[in-house]
Amino acid sequence: MALKIAVLPGDGTGPEVVREALKVVAAVSKLEKFEYTTTAFDFGGDRYLKSGHIIDDKDIAHLRENFDAILLGAVGHPEVKPGILEKGLLLRVRFALDQYINLRPVRLYPGVETPLRDKGPEQINFDVIRENTEDLYCGNGGIMRQGTMQEVATQEMIATRFGAERCLRYAFEYCRAKKASGGGKGMLTLVHKTNVLTFCGDLWFRAFHEIGEKDYPDIKRDYNHVDACCMWFVKSPEFYDTIVVPNMFGDIITDLGAIIQGGLGVAAGGNINPDRGGISMYEPIGGSAPKYTGMNIINPIAAIGAAAMLLQNTADKDGKFPWRKAGDRIEAAIKKTTPRMKSQAAGKMGCSTSEVGDLVCEVL
Ligand code: IPM
Ligand code: MN
Q: Which H or E run includes 242?
Protein backbone atom coordinates (compact mmCIF):
# COMPACT_ATOMS: atom_id res chain seq x y z
CA MET A 1 0.00 0.00 0.00
CA ALA A 2 1.36 3.41 -0.94
CA LEU A 3 1.66 5.89 1.90
CA LYS A 4 -0.37 8.99 1.07
CA ILE A 5 1.11 12.18 2.49
CA ALA A 6 -0.70 15.52 2.36
CA VAL A 7 1.84 18.31 2.35
CA LEU A 8 1.02 21.75 3.74
CA PRO A 9 4.18 23.80 3.17
CA GLY A 10 2.48 26.90 4.63
CA ASP A 11 4.12 30.26 5.09
CA GLY A 12 7.56 31.87 5.15
CA THR A 13 10.36 29.35 5.28
CA GLY A 14 7.88 26.45 5.51
CA PRO A 15 8.17 25.53 1.82
CA GLU A 16 11.99 25.56 1.94
CA VAL A 17 12.27 23.19 4.87
CA VAL A 18 9.49 20.93 3.61
CA ARG A 19 11.33 20.56 0.29
CA GLU A 20 14.36 19.17 2.13
CA ALA A 21 12.21 16.87 4.25
CA LEU A 22 10.63 15.45 1.09
CA LYS A 23 14.04 15.04 -0.50
CA VAL A 24 15.02 12.85 2.44
CA VAL A 25 11.75 10.89 2.28
CA ALA A 26 12.44 10.22 -1.41
CA ALA A 27 15.92 8.92 -0.57
CA VAL A 28 14.77 6.65 2.23
CA SER A 29 11.87 5.30 0.17
CA LYS A 30 14.37 3.96 -2.35
CA LEU A 31 16.46 2.31 0.36
CA GLU A 32 13.50 0.87 2.23
CA LYS A 33 11.57 0.18 -0.95
CA PHE A 34 8.23 1.69 -0.13
CA GLU A 35 5.78 3.55 -2.31
CA TYR A 36 4.33 6.89 -1.39
CA THR A 37 2.59 9.88 -2.88
CA THR A 38 2.65 13.53 -1.88
CA THR A 39 -0.08 16.06 -2.57
CA ALA A 40 0.56 19.71 -1.80
CA PHE A 41 -2.04 22.16 -0.50
CA ASP A 42 -1.61 25.92 -0.43
CA PHE A 43 -3.36 26.65 2.87
CA GLY A 44 -1.65 29.56 4.59
CA GLY A 45 -1.13 33.29 4.73
CA ASP A 46 -0.72 34.06 1.03
CA ARG A 47 -3.91 32.30 0.02
CA TYR A 48 -5.76 33.89 2.92
CA LEU A 49 -4.64 37.38 1.90
CA LYS A 50 -5.71 36.78 -1.70
CA SER A 51 -9.00 35.02 -1.12
CA GLY A 52 -9.93 35.12 2.56
CA HIS A 53 -9.92 31.33 2.59
CA ILE A 54 -8.05 29.55 5.39
CA ILE A 55 -9.34 25.97 5.64
CA ASP A 56 -12.92 24.75 5.82
CA ASP A 57 -14.89 21.63 6.70
CA LYS A 58 -14.71 20.35 3.13
CA ASP A 59 -10.92 20.71 3.05
CA ILE A 60 -10.67 18.88 6.36
CA ALA A 61 -12.95 16.10 5.19
CA HIS A 62 -10.79 15.80 2.08
CA LEU A 63 -7.66 15.44 4.20
CA ARG A 64 -9.37 12.91 6.46
CA GLU A 65 -10.67 10.78 3.63
CA ASN A 66 -7.74 10.77 1.24
CA PHE A 67 -4.51 10.75 3.23
CA ASP A 68 -2.60 8.74 5.81
CA ALA A 69 -0.69 11.66 7.33
CA ILE A 70 0.06 15.35 6.97
CA LEU A 71 3.41 17.13 6.81
CA LEU A 72 3.19 20.80 7.76
CA GLY A 73 5.88 23.43 7.14
CA ALA A 74 4.99 26.56 9.08
CA VAL A 75 2.02 28.74 9.90
CA GLY A 76 2.26 32.53 10.37
CA HIS A 77 2.44 35.46 7.96
CA PRO A 78 3.78 38.94 8.76
CA GLU A 79 0.83 40.64 7.03
CA VAL A 80 -1.82 38.59 8.79
CA LYS A 81 -2.88 39.59 12.29
CA PRO A 82 -1.47 37.12 14.83
CA GLY A 83 -3.98 34.49 15.85
CA ILE A 84 -5.94 34.25 12.61
CA LEU A 85 -3.87 31.54 10.96
CA GLU A 86 -2.81 29.94 14.23
CA LYS A 87 -6.42 29.46 15.25
CA GLY A 88 -7.92 29.17 11.79
CA LEU A 89 -5.45 26.64 10.41
CA LEU A 90 -3.21 25.00 12.98
CA LEU A 91 -5.65 24.67 15.87
CA ARG A 92 -8.53 24.00 13.48
CA VAL A 93 -6.77 20.98 11.99
CA ARG A 94 -5.63 19.72 15.40
CA PHE A 95 -9.18 19.88 16.75
CA ALA A 96 -11.08 18.76 13.66
CA LEU A 97 -8.90 15.70 13.16
CA ASP A 98 -8.91 15.10 16.93
CA GLN A 99 -5.13 15.04 17.12
CA TYR A 100 -5.24 14.76 20.86
CA ILE A 101 -1.57 13.98 21.37
CA ASN A 102 1.20 16.45 20.78
CA LEU A 103 4.38 14.41 20.89
CA ARG A 104 7.52 16.48 21.28
CA PRO A 105 10.78 14.62 21.73
CA VAL A 106 13.48 16.67 23.44
CA ARG A 107 16.72 15.16 22.19
CA LEU A 108 20.07 16.84 21.92
CA TYR A 109 21.70 15.41 18.81
CA PRO A 110 25.48 14.93 18.63
CA GLY A 111 27.41 18.06 17.81
CA VAL A 112 24.47 20.34 18.56
CA GLU A 113 25.11 23.20 20.90
CA THR A 114 22.88 23.58 23.96
CA PRO A 115 22.79 26.65 26.18
CA LEU A 116 23.11 24.29 29.17
CA ARG A 117 26.67 24.07 30.37
CA ASP A 118 28.00 20.53 31.01
CA LYS A 119 25.01 18.78 29.40
CA GLY A 120 25.26 16.54 26.37
CA PRO A 121 23.13 14.10 24.35
CA GLU A 122 23.16 11.64 27.29
CA GLN A 123 21.55 14.18 29.60
CA ILE A 124 19.06 15.76 27.23
CA ASN A 125 16.94 12.91 25.97
CA PHE A 126 13.29 12.75 26.95
CA ASP A 127 9.79 12.97 25.48
CA VAL A 128 6.97 15.35 26.23
CA ILE A 129 3.42 14.20 25.57
CA ARG A 130 1.19 17.24 25.56
CA GLU A 131 -2.60 16.97 25.52
CA ASN A 132 -3.62 18.80 22.35
CA THR A 133 -7.39 19.40 22.31
CA GLU A 134 -8.53 20.75 25.69
CA ASP A 135 -7.52 23.11 28.47
CA LEU A 136 -7.24 26.86 27.81
CA TYR A 137 -7.09 26.10 24.09
CA CYS A 138 -10.82 25.33 23.90
CA GLY A 139 -11.51 29.03 23.48
CA ASN A 140 -14.33 29.15 26.01
CA GLY A 141 -14.82 32.43 27.77
CA GLY A 142 -15.61 35.95 26.81
CA ILE A 143 -15.43 39.64 27.40
CA MET A 144 -18.17 41.80 28.80
CA ARG A 145 -18.47 45.55 29.29
CA GLN A 146 -15.61 45.90 26.84
CA GLY A 147 -13.81 49.21 26.88
CA THR A 148 -15.21 50.27 30.22
CA MET A 149 -13.55 50.30 33.62
CA GLN A 150 -15.88 47.44 34.51
CA GLU A 151 -14.55 45.23 31.72
CA VAL A 152 -14.42 41.51 32.54
CA ALA A 153 -12.55 38.83 30.60
CA THR A 154 -12.63 35.11 31.29
CA GLN A 155 -10.80 32.24 29.64
CA GLU A 156 -11.77 28.83 30.86
CA MET A 157 -9.44 25.98 31.62
CA ILE A 158 -11.26 22.81 30.62
CA ALA A 159 -10.28 19.32 31.64
CA THR A 160 -12.41 16.28 30.97
CA ARG A 161 -11.85 12.83 32.37
CA PHE A 162 -12.14 11.46 28.83
CA GLY A 163 -9.54 13.86 27.45
CA ALA A 164 -7.12 13.39 30.32
CA GLU A 165 -7.54 9.63 30.32
CA ARG A 166 -6.85 9.05 26.63
CA CYS A 167 -3.76 11.25 26.82
CA LEU A 168 -2.52 9.57 30.01
CA ARG A 169 -3.02 6.11 28.52
CA TYR A 170 -1.06 7.08 25.41
CA ALA A 171 1.72 8.38 27.66
CA PHE A 172 1.84 5.24 29.82
CA GLU A 173 1.94 3.06 26.70
CA TYR A 174 4.64 5.23 25.13
CA CYS A 175 6.74 5.11 28.29
CA ARG A 176 6.33 1.33 28.54
CA ALA A 177 7.28 0.78 24.88
CA LYS A 178 10.32 3.01 25.27
CA LYS A 179 11.46 1.04 28.31
CA ALA A 180 10.96 -2.25 26.47
CA SER A 181 13.12 -1.03 23.59
CA GLY A 182 15.88 -0.03 26.01
CA GLY A 183 15.36 3.69 25.46
CA GLY A 184 13.93 4.72 28.81
CA LYS A 185 13.81 3.92 32.49
CA GLY A 186 10.04 3.51 32.68
CA MET A 187 9.20 6.69 34.56
CA LEU A 188 6.28 8.93 33.64
CA THR A 189 6.18 12.44 35.11
CA LEU A 190 2.87 14.28 35.26
CA VAL A 191 3.35 18.05 35.06
CA HIS A 192 0.58 20.32 36.33
CA LYS A 193 -0.02 22.92 39.00
CA THR A 194 -2.16 21.03 41.48
CA ASN A 195 -1.35 23.40 44.32
CA VAL A 196 -3.30 26.19 42.62
CA LEU A 197 -5.42 24.52 39.92
CA THR A 198 -7.25 22.43 42.47
CA PHE A 199 -10.03 21.35 40.08
CA CYS A 200 -8.36 20.61 36.73
CA GLY A 201 -5.14 19.58 38.43
CA ASP A 202 -7.00 17.27 40.76
CA LEU A 203 -8.80 15.56 37.89
CA TRP A 204 -5.51 14.89 36.08
CA PHE A 205 -3.73 13.83 39.28
CA ARG A 206 -6.40 11.32 40.27
CA ALA A 207 -6.73 9.93 36.76
CA PHE A 208 -2.94 9.60 36.51
CA HIS A 209 -2.65 7.56 39.68
CA GLU A 210 -5.79 5.50 39.18
CA ILE A 211 -4.84 4.45 35.65
CA GLY A 212 -1.20 3.95 36.56
CA GLU A 213 -1.92 1.83 39.62
CA LYS A 214 -4.46 -0.35 37.86
CA ASP A 215 -2.99 -0.82 34.38
CA TYR A 216 0.64 0.28 34.44
CA PRO A 217 2.16 -0.92 37.74
CA ASP A 218 5.47 -1.43 35.89
CA ILE A 219 5.76 2.32 35.22
CA LYS A 220 7.07 4.55 37.98
CA ARG A 221 4.82 7.57 38.55
CA ASP A 222 6.35 10.94 39.25
CA TYR A 223 4.80 14.39 39.62
CA ASN A 224 6.19 17.93 39.14
CA HIS A 225 4.56 21.29 39.45
CA VAL A 226 5.07 23.11 36.15
CA ASP A 227 7.19 25.89 37.62
CA ALA A 228 9.53 23.42 39.28
CA CYS A 229 9.64 21.43 36.04
CA CYS A 230 11.03 24.50 34.22
CA MET A 231 13.76 24.68 36.82
CA TRP A 232 14.62 20.99 36.46
CA PHE A 233 14.71 21.18 32.63
CA VAL A 234 17.65 23.53 33.08
CA LYS A 235 19.30 22.05 36.13
CA SER A 236 18.82 18.28 35.66
CA PRO A 237 17.23 17.37 32.32
CA GLU A 238 18.69 13.85 32.69
CA PHE A 239 16.09 13.22 35.37
CA TYR A 240 13.28 12.95 32.79
CA ASP A 241 12.12 10.00 30.74
CA THR A 242 8.56 10.73 29.59
CA ILE A 243 6.43 13.70 30.61
CA VAL A 244 2.66 14.00 30.29
CA VAL A 245 1.15 17.46 30.54
CA PRO A 246 -2.03 19.38 29.67
CA ASN A 247 -2.13 21.68 26.67
CA MET A 248 -1.05 25.14 27.84
CA PHE A 249 1.67 24.06 30.24
CA GLY A 250 2.81 21.66 27.53
CA ASP A 251 3.07 24.50 25.03
CA ILE A 252 5.29 26.46 27.38
CA ILE A 253 7.60 23.71 28.59
CA THR A 254 8.16 22.40 25.06
CA ASP A 255 9.59 25.72 23.92
CA LEU A 256 11.99 25.46 26.84
CA GLY A 257 12.62 21.87 25.74
CA ALA A 258 13.28 23.02 22.17
CA ILE A 259 15.89 25.54 23.24
CA ILE A 260 17.82 23.08 25.42
CA GLN A 261 17.90 20.62 22.51
CA GLY A 262 19.54 23.20 20.30
CA GLY A 263 16.76 25.51 19.19
CA LEU A 264 13.80 25.67 16.88
CA GLY A 265 15.92 24.63 13.92
CA VAL A 266 16.09 21.08 15.24
CA ALA A 267 12.88 20.56 17.27
CA ALA A 268 10.17 18.47 15.63
CA GLY A 269 6.76 17.42 16.84
CA GLY A 270 3.68 15.47 15.93
CA ASN A 271 -0.01 16.26 16.36
CA ILE A 272 -1.20 12.71 16.64
CA ASN A 273 -4.54 10.99 16.52
CA PRO A 274 -3.45 7.50 17.53
CA ASP A 275 -6.89 5.96 17.10
CA ARG A 276 -7.46 3.52 14.25
CA GLY A 277 -7.87 5.53 11.05
CA GLY A 278 -6.73 8.76 12.73
CA ILE A 279 -4.86 11.32 10.59
CA SER A 280 -1.86 12.94 12.25
CA MET A 281 0.10 16.04 11.33
CA TYR A 282 3.86 16.43 11.79
CA GLU A 283 5.67 19.73 11.92
CA PRO A 284 8.87 21.51 12.78
CA ILE A 285 8.03 23.36 16.01
CA GLY A 286 9.58 26.64 14.83
CA GLY A 287 7.54 29.28 13.07
CA SER A 288 7.62 30.67 9.55
CA ALA A 289 10.72 32.86 10.17
CA PRO A 290 9.70 35.56 7.65
CA LYS A 291 13.02 37.39 7.81
CA TYR A 292 14.87 34.33 6.46
CA THR A 293 12.34 33.45 3.77
CA GLY A 294 13.74 32.54 0.36
CA MET A 295 17.36 32.88 1.45
CA ASN A 296 18.19 29.16 1.60
CA ILE A 297 19.73 29.62 5.07
CA ILE A 298 17.06 28.20 7.36
CA ASN A 299 17.75 24.92 9.16
CA PRO A 300 15.67 22.05 7.73
CA ILE A 301 16.70 19.50 10.40
CA ALA A 302 13.45 20.02 12.36
CA ALA A 303 11.37 19.44 9.23
CA ILE A 304 13.42 16.38 8.34
CA GLY A 305 12.88 15.19 11.91
CA ALA A 306 9.15 15.77 11.49
CA ALA A 307 9.19 13.60 8.36
CA ALA A 308 11.02 10.91 10.37
CA MET A 309 8.32 11.08 13.04
CA LEU A 310 5.64 10.83 10.37
CA LEU A 311 7.16 7.61 9.07
CA GLN A 312 7.70 6.22 12.57
CA ASN A 313 4.19 6.92 13.82
CA THR A 314 1.88 6.40 10.85
CA ALA A 315 -0.07 3.16 11.03
CA ASP A 316 -1.54 1.30 8.09
CA LYS A 317 -5.13 0.08 8.11
CA ASP A 318 -4.16 -3.05 10.05
CA GLY A 319 -2.68 -0.91 12.82
CA LYS A 320 0.89 -1.89 11.90
CA PHE A 321 3.75 0.57 11.35
CA PRO A 322 5.31 -0.44 8.02
CA TRP A 323 7.29 2.80 7.62
CA ARG A 324 8.78 2.89 11.13
CA LYS A 325 12.14 1.51 10.11
CA ALA A 326 12.43 4.14 7.38
CA GLY A 327 11.73 6.83 9.98
CA ASP A 328 14.33 5.35 12.33
CA ARG A 329 16.83 5.43 9.49
CA ILE A 330 16.22 9.14 8.94
CA GLU A 331 16.63 9.80 12.65
CA ALA A 332 19.92 7.90 12.66
CA ALA A 333 21.06 9.91 9.63
CA ILE A 334 20.19 13.19 11.38
CA LYS A 335 22.41 12.17 14.29
CA LYS A 336 25.30 11.68 11.88
CA THR A 337 24.58 14.92 10.02
CA THR A 338 24.42 17.38 12.91
CA PRO A 339 28.08 16.91 13.90
CA ARG A 340 29.01 17.94 10.35
CA MET A 341 27.17 21.25 10.61
CA LYS A 342 28.84 24.31 12.13
CA SER A 343 25.78 25.44 14.02
CA GLN A 344 22.04 24.86 14.03
CA ALA A 345 21.19 28.55 13.75
CA ALA A 346 19.85 29.97 10.48
CA GLY A 347 22.67 31.43 8.41
CA LYS A 348 25.38 29.95 10.62
CA MET A 349 25.17 26.30 9.62
CA GLY A 350 28.24 26.44 7.40
CA CYS A 351 26.04 25.25 4.55
CA SER A 352 22.73 26.12 2.94
CA THR A 353 19.26 24.72 3.59
CA SER A 354 19.44 22.52 0.51
CA GLU A 355 22.96 21.34 1.37
CA VAL A 356 21.74 20.10 4.75
CA GLY A 357 19.09 18.05 2.94
CA ASP A 358 21.73 16.70 0.56
CA LEU A 359 23.98 15.83 3.47
CA VAL A 360 21.25 13.83 5.22
CA CYS A 361 20.60 11.94 1.95
CA GLU A 362 24.30 11.25 1.53
CA VAL A 363 24.57 9.93 5.09
CA LEU A 364 21.50 7.76 4.49
C1 IPM B 1 2.77 25.39 19.12
C2 IPM B 1 2.35 26.81 18.86
C3 IPM B 1 0.82 26.84 18.82
C4 IPM B 1 0.32 26.36 20.17
C5 IPM B 1 0.22 28.20 18.46
C6 IPM B 1 0.79 28.73 17.17
C7 IPM B 1 -1.28 28.14 18.40
O8 IPM B 1 2.85 27.66 19.82
O9 IPM B 1 2.53 24.54 18.26
O10 IPM B 1 3.36 25.12 20.18
O11 IPM B 1 0.22 27.15 21.10
O12 IPM B 1 0.04 25.18 20.29
MN1 MN C 1 4.23 26.69 21.19
A: strand 242-245
